[in-house]
Amino acid sequence: MNPKNLEFLKDGLKYMGFGEKLNADLEAKINQQPTEFNLSLQGEFKKDGVTDKVDYRLDFKKSDQTDMYFFNRYQATLKNEDPTQEKSQTFYITKNSGITAKEAFNLLSGRSVNKDLTNKEGQAYNAWLQLDFSEKDKNDNYKVKQYHSGYGYELDAVVSRYPIKELSNDEEKVKLMKSLEKGNQTQVTFLKDGKEEKMFIEANPQFKTLNLYDAKMQKQFQGIEKKETSEPEKSKEKKETQKQDVDEESEGKEKKSKKGKGVGV
User: Fold this and answer.
1) 103 forms bridges with which residues in the sheet?
2) What burial class does residue 265 get, using C-beta atoms within 10 Å of its C-beta: 0-12 exposed, 13-18 middle, 19+ buried?
3) Is 251 contained in some domain?
4) What CA–CA distance (Å, rounded) separates 36 from 76?
5) For a Cys-Cys bond, which of 29, 92, 100, 158 suits 17, CB 3.0-4.6 Å?
6) Do residues 159 and 131 lie in contact, with contact meaning Cβ atoms separated by under 8 Å?
7) Is residue 225 part of a domain?
8) Is residue 125 domain-resident?
9) Rounded distance, CA 84 to CA 188, Å?
């Protein structure tokens, strides 16, 4: 057994969020010198009395030329009371770097994760990742949607539109931003009409906004970040817009609607 290789693998498990629980099993397997092997672990993620479970299967393979082993990938399965509703995805590891165990849980839960990545040419770039549960690739993995910097999702600017108490403290703001980038559903305090209200938020790069939930984890509609227009004012604005459109058409001008119904991927 290669001691340095073993320590490197143990460090990889720790950095990737699997802790030290598998260290003894890892060493025992390597002592047996198999060509490849896997280790299993169940993770639990608790929030407000609800516990989600994820089964992990970590795959290790021995080099064809040396006695070194490599941790190249793992499969994560988000459990469900109905087995047909379970979701699985294989995540690949490069030199102890990749999607962490917690980030895998967030992705399988439908949330987005921000990562520094490298393309085939070795160039570094940053992107938000989200699983597309409507489509799978040839390896039975969900396809991954990427939203690059050019897409225009600026998390800092988006978060600043909301009355979040934690933004007034630099240290708490840094923690909040890092948590959202990891794909976490993060608890914050909203200041509304002079009162504090517990809320949960998560990044939504696809629609360049945040997903909002109240203390009972009920999804909230957008509009909290600014004063909503009253119904009479909306009606008035609609009539004025219709009148303007008619006037412009009579002058022979071509108009294109500026309202979009969604964001293409």
Assistant:
1) none
2) exposed
3) no
4) 19
5) 100
6) no
7) no
8) no
9) 34
Residues shown for the chain: 265
pLDDT in tens, 50-86: 899 999 999 999 999 999 999 999 999 999 989 899 9
Region of residue 8 (left: phi > 0; alpha: psi -120 to 50; beta: else): alpha
Closest Cα partner for 180 from 160, 156, 150? Answer: 156
Q: Within this chain, do residues 33 and 101 fall inside the same structural domain, yes or no? A: yes
Q: With contact defined as beta carbons under 8 Å apart, do 26 and 88 qualify?
A: no
Tens digit of each residue's pLDDT (9 = 90 or more) over 23-58 = 999 999 999 999 999 999 999 998 877 899 999 999
Based on the structure, what is the number of domains in the chain?
Answer: 2
Q: Which two tokens mark 90?
A: 């294989």
Same domain? 9 vs 102: yes
Q: What is the pTM of this model?
A: 0.81
At 244, the amino acid letter reads: Q
Token duo for residue 184: 């976490």
